[in-house]
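Can anyone check this?
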Amino acid sequence: MATANILIVEDQNIIAMDLKSRLLSLGYQVAGTAAQADDALRQCAEMRPDLVLMDIRLKGEMDGVQAAERIRAEFGLPVIFLTAHSDEQTLRRAQLTEPYGYMLKPFEDRELHMAIEIALYKHRTEKKLRTHERWLAAILQGIGDAVIAVDVHGLVQFLNPVAAALTGWTAAEAQGRPVAEVFNAVDAHTRARIDNPLSLALAQQRFVSLPDQTLLVTRDGREIPVDDSAAPIRDDQGRLTGAVLVFRDVTERKRAEEHLRHLAYHDSLTGLPNRALFHILVGRALAHAQRHGRRGAVLFLDLDRFKNVNDTLGHPMGDLLLRAVAARLTRTLRQNDTVARLGGDEFTVLIEEVEQPQDAARVAEKILSVLAEPFDLGGHEVFVGGSLGLAIFPHDGDDLHTLLRNADTALYRVKEQGRNGYAFYQAEMNAAALTQLTLEMSLRRALQRGEFVLYYQPKVALNTGRIVGVEALLRWQRPELGLVPPSQFLQLAEETGLIVPIGEWVLQTACRQAQAWRSAGLTQLRVGVNLSNRQFRQPDLVAMVRRALDEAGLPPEALELELTETIIMQERDSAVAKLQALKKMGVYLSIDDFGTGYSALEYLKHFQVDGLKIDQSFVRSAHEDKEDEAIVKAIVTLAHNLNIRVTAEGVETLEQHSFIKACLCDETQGYYFGYPMPSDAFLRFMRKGTGSLSLGPGPQPA
């Protein structure tokens, strides 16, 4: 498809040049720029651009609205208004020109690109519809368009069958009657009578078209949308002898245009208003609230556990859930409230009038209540909840962007506190968000600045008491704060994707350190490295592991990769291939935190893992809690039956050590044997002793 050629009409040269640059960067051609309406009309006539971007406020006698009307009427070109003004009167005048878009300055390139593409698509569709209508007339065996011909006095001389059907007059009845009786047209909006196009063609002796929004009033009072053209008829000497009107029923085209308008402002999946329409509705509500001293609210809703539905049941079921949620929300809200879908599992609600914030809170509670009920998705009973952030306007913002941002900030607070609830926006939340943003920025620089370090916690073989391995644990050495534990930054790293480069650094560093220890005589150590969800999903995971081993010169059997149950169960199809490749390479594979996820021992054999680590939540109280004791013993027995080694995590006391040793666990780790320590401290400890531990506490923190 050819690149669209766009005319810019803007009276501020700097803005026009900036807009031109942005259009060129988006891949469009710029036909030219105009600062005044007359110049714009001239360029439209000469260059016939594909689309016009029109500023409403222009220098000269005509403003942008008047120019757009002329451009539409004379050249049939699509116009998108660009303006910094959104007052009601201007909007009403602009709407009468039927623009193809209306954008408030300032706007982003993405918004500009979307508006242009929608306008071009709509314009092309209209052209296709008109072409289709002409082809249809020819295909239907000469039925064709309706045709009325009059003499020089405006009396009907000819009426074809289509015209007869549309007007309700037979050819015989219409013959000799004034055309105004047979063809009666009114404006679709005002119902005012429109000058008869045949009478105009005779009087002005030129080609005449009806306005777009024209209704034909039939003989029996029905109203039919039509478009037409009338032209004078001349004899060989050029003398006026009459005029001919060709018109057609454009009901279907109007329906198609309405469908396109609906698509432009509604979500195709749920039928709810989309972001564009929500923007307009919130703008109107804000203006109303400011004029009348009222308050309203914007609610930002994010579904809890929606990703689980998509991952386990598939995207079609996820779509079905979104439609069901939309239906419930629509039924729950008042008629004058609006629910919209912004995308994904994000919904917004506009409450146009609230007397007190508690009114918005009651709406939030109703939403949470209806979301708590199960959803039936094709025989699958699904439970989801919701997290809601609430912003009250105009107190929390006087534009959609600010309101959504603040409602989203409140929503984030709900998620931090466990989800399935609601919170009002508070100004101090922005301070917390700023702190989070600062943390993210520091985290992004930490890898480049070498601020990450690895600590190593010993793993002990219970039958010999010897240290047989270590687990590499990430720490962040922040210059201004000191050593930061992973609990304060790993989740953020996972959310932002920074865990991928950080995880690769951890793997490379641990492999190099393990090889350095081997060169120092510690040849029996196996170093364990944790893989995150996002890391495991990387398509080059196997290649990355191979590269880290090769660069360090470390044998694969000296590396242990620790994965959680959730990772391999959520990525089951790709997990099989990846784990088989790693197993073939010779890497030791273990399941971390076993017992907190799916806890299905049968999949361990299917995925060919070598070991599992019993989560410390069971180990901590197993020596005094019968239920936890039974769980630990069952895991050990079943794992050994599958030739899988078992490690007990979080052993901190003599009683815990005695218990897990009695359960015949293979390995253990925890503060009882040694705290995580830097690599040099670990090497000093190993050289000082024999590499074995008795029943006393191990090395303390460095």
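Reply from J.R.: I decoded it. The longest helix spans residues 109-139.
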